[in-house]
Amino acid sequence: MSTFTLILCILAAVVLSSFLSRFIPKVSTPLVQIALGIVASQLPFFPDTDLDPELFMVLFIAPLLYLEAHEIDKSSLLKSLKISLSLAIGLAIATMAAVGLTVNTFWPAIPLAAACALGAALGPTDAVAVSSLGKEASLTQRQLGVLQGESLFNDASGIVGFQFSILAAVTGTFSIGEAAGEFALSFVGGTLLGLAIGIVVNWVFETIRSLGWETTTTRILMELFLPFLLYLAAEDIAHVSGILAVVACGLFVRFDHTGVGPNVARTNIVSNSVWTVLSFSLNGAVFILLGMLLPDAMSRSWEDPGVSNTMLIEVILLVSAVVIGMRFLWVSLMLRITKDEHTGQRRRMTPERWRSAAVMTFGGAKGTITLSLMLTIPYFLSSGELFPMRDELIFIASGVIIVTLLLANFLLPLIAPNRSTDNSAEINSITIEVLRQTVEELTRRVTPENRRAVLMVIDSYTKRITRLKQRIGDTDPQGYEQLQIDALHWEKDYVKEHLAAIRQHPLGDAHEQELEVEACERMLDQIMNTLRHASANSSRSGRAVSQFRGRFRALQRRVIALVRRLDSKIRRTTPLMNENELLVRVRRLQTEAIECVINRLYDEIRRDNYNTEHCSSLLLDYRRADSALRSRPTAEGSTAALSMAEDVKRESYGIELGVIQDMFEAGDISRAQARALRRNVYVMSVDADSSM
């Protein structure tokens, strides 16, 4: 039960981190999650955490690296493959040797083999942290490709180097030839196994789809199981690198995303959604666990009276400087000797290239793999003695992790500031324009038969526009209020014209004439009273004058109506007016005035006098008022309207796609933006098809 409680608490912390990251955008999500993990570890109700490194690798690292390899830009990876492999292998070995010699020299109590194990554990960079670096820093495609490629391949070299260093520390013997052979077997064997499994998986999925056996459930389950099963098979059966097997398979497998039809589209959409949720959950859980483990891993050394805390801090800073310095020199050397892909010549180190080297240096943050490796250090040597300085080594590794993550979070935005505009705000603005044009086109297709159904669809579009405008802070309440006031004036003008027409061409029945006139007078009083209250934004003196004039005119009309009634009663020219009859006439006149405003709003949507979303929103309000005045529709009518609304909704998706294509051909949006907008429409279209 404690394990289940721990899982729930970690997931709750992951959800909380997604909300907190919105309020502190300058701090990367991994740092927020580490802080939450540290806080959670101090809470009394939070279960204790004991990390099984092997379980951690198969449960978290294997699926995350598989997904990272599956989604990485293959062309960028191929262009930067040499640099990525040199960092993953050459730099990892050089860092292991440099850190080992430095730590052993500065603190002789730490054996050379144990210090080399620390250096090997600090070799792997964190793939999750690398993928989140582009938030506040502006990294080029090449820089991201190098960093992501390195993070995919350097885990194997770090793990193998760590294992042989620990073996040397425990047994006291070490063979360079044996270590090199073991490393080559693990590296090459894991890669070949992953490629072979990828070929088989591609063939299996193509066959299943061609035979019509594929279902969404089986497809998603097979995708999810693949990285776990492949890692276990590589480690326990083939005895090669499970990490490299997962990475190679992820790079090669494609799960046959081709095909045409709603079932294929639905399966692909569900697959992407599932992997998105799973990757965010696993990423968050990894850093939450890291934060939970750090206090316990560091407290034992910090509280040990026999160990100088000053010495611990100095070693952390020294090791961090060695790791970062080695990385900067290695990256600079690789940039200097790498030939230009166009000219074939080596390029000189310009200030821009030095800056690129610094970006890739601080972009190599350490993370959970480093800590998980350090926690596997045995407690005893083969002789039965305690492993020397075990707690101190874990403390140093934890400190270096924190230093590199902080540098990546706060120095990268300074070295490579993100000067680009907010893409989310830009795409939201473009989406609003697409939706606005779609509403305008839907308005042009209104007929008396489909008016109610089209209004339902316009309602959904209006709500989407409102949500997007609120998200980017682009609301205009004054504009909407002005439109409401203008609509009231349209009502008033219609009633005045109707009243003038009645007086100019009197009805044959005097009683009917008086009812119509009285209904118009009451409507005008109501509208004028509403207008007086709607003018709250005008000046105080102007509002007082307006209210005085309105009330005087209302009183004048009522006096005239009263005099007319008394005159009719005295002369007995017309029967007394019935209040129920008058109410019916007022409601009918209100319905006619509302219909006039609705038609005017439909016309305004096609023009540029008012915002389209304001017109469509007010249109909905008037339609609701019209429905309240009229008799309630029958259940059959409501069902027919809903069915017709579904047809209109599917038609609106086609309109949206047409608007997107027109904007792309006109150069208003880029190809990437058009692709993103189309993807959203396709998702809604597939959802509409699935609900049929």
From TrEMBL:
Keywords for the protein's UniProt record, in alphabetical order: Cell membrane, Ion transport, Membrane, Sodium, Sodium transport, Transmembrane, Transmembrane helix, Transport
Keyword Ribonucleoprotein: no
PANTHER family, per database record: SODIUM/HYDROGEN EXCHANGER (PTHR10110), SODIUM_HYDROGEN EXCHANGER 7 (PTHR10110:SF86)
Name the record gives this protein: Cation:proton antiporter
Database matches in InterPro entries: Cation/H_exchanger_CPA1 (IPR018422), Cation/H_exchanger_TM (IPR006153)
Membrane-crossing segments per the record: 53-69, 81-103, 156-176, 183-205, 225-253, 274-295, 315-335, 356-381, 393-412
Keyword flag Cell cycle: no
Pfam families in UniProt: Na_H_Exchanger
Residue span(s) of domain Cation/H+ exchanger transmembrane: 13-413
Topology with respect to the bilayer: Multi-pass membrane protein
Subcellular location: Cell membrane
